Amino acid sequence: xxxxxxxxxxxxxxxxxSPSEALANCPPGCQCDDNTLVVQCGEGQLDVLPIALNPSIxxxxxxxxxxxxxxxxxxxxxxxxxxxxxSNHLMTIPQRTFAYQKKxxxxxxxxNKIGQISNKTxxxxxxxxxxxxxxxxxxxxxxxxxxxxxxxVELNLGENRIGFLDPKAFDGLRQLxxxxxxxxxxxxxxxxxxxxxxxxxxxxxxGMNSLLTIxxxxxxxxxxxxxxxxxxxSLRNVSHDSFQGLEELRILxxxxxxxxxxxxxxxxxxxxxxxxxxxxxxxxxxxxxxLVGLKQLKRQDLNGxxxxxxxxxxxxxxxxxxxxxxxxxxKMLVEQLEGALSGLRHxxxxxxxxxxLSILAEDLFPWTNRVTLYLSxxxxx
Length: 381
Hints:
Layout: H1 2-16, E1 30-33, E2 38-41, E3 59-62, E4 82-84, E5 106-108, E6 130-132, E7 140-141, E8 154-156, E9 164-165, E10 178-180, H2 192-195, E11 203-205, E12 213-214, E13 227-229, E14 237-238, E15 251-253, H3 264-267, E16 275-277, E17 285-286, E18 299-301, E19 310-311, E20 324-326, E21 335-336, E22 349-351, E23 372-374
Parallel strand pairs: 2-3, 3-4, 4-5, 5-6, 6-8, 7-9, 8-10, 10-11, 11-13, 12-14, 13-15, 15-16, 16-18, 17-19, 18-20, 19-21, 20-22, 22-23
Antiparallel strand pairs: 1-2
């Protein structure tokens, strides 16, 4: 009965408002363009989705308003390809809300108050490639939650409260390439079974959780992963086999953790790694051959390691392709031994500000290179 009523209303509206008259029904504070089929509403007082817009619109952007739910009026806009309802007051998404949105490709519901989603929430979104749920209050993901999203490429679940992940929560996401799970309540790296459902995953964000450690072979099924972000994940330990299987990894961020030493053995398996961030950890020394095996490394960030005191001779001996080295804001770094950066023929940029360096060894750098050296705010005598 409700569906008949909705269809009747839509038919009445369609007969009253032709596309050429749709501009007259544009809500205050919104811009409605019937040529581009775009409706964009600025910050305002809208608390429900407009019901009398041109039913042919393709892009609907209503950010920073007071909308509390996505009601049945969304069904009037079956031609939508882009929907942005970020920074509203959404608390729930009724089941089958998007059942008629067969053309939607991007859905942005970030920074709302959504607390629960299920395997019926996203029914109908078979064309969606980007779903943004960042900054909500989701705490659990159950089996098959995202199964209707057959074509999804990017899924952002960062800044939620997720502490429970069913091993089959991401089943069906075989085209997923980017997954954000950062800044949640995870206490361990998700079960490897979860990653088996996403064989094409290229970028994974797990930082700002309380992982403490990375269990052996945690990422072994992510053969195509090129970027792994573990910044601020409370890591105290990385095992020798933590990064097993990540032969294609290019970017790794382990900064802002509690690592007492550089996990040299674990890192040595990342033979294609090009960018590595290890700053803001607790190690005191960068030992000789600390990054052995990383022959493709081009960028190294070791900034803000407040306990770092020494960089040993030939510390980066195996990193002959290094181009950029950041050793800034290491307040206790008082000694960098001669030859510590020897053999780095491609080194072009070195940042060492501010530290506690008082002496710069004459053969510290391969001076034949054109090296840009930043040494300000050091007590060099």
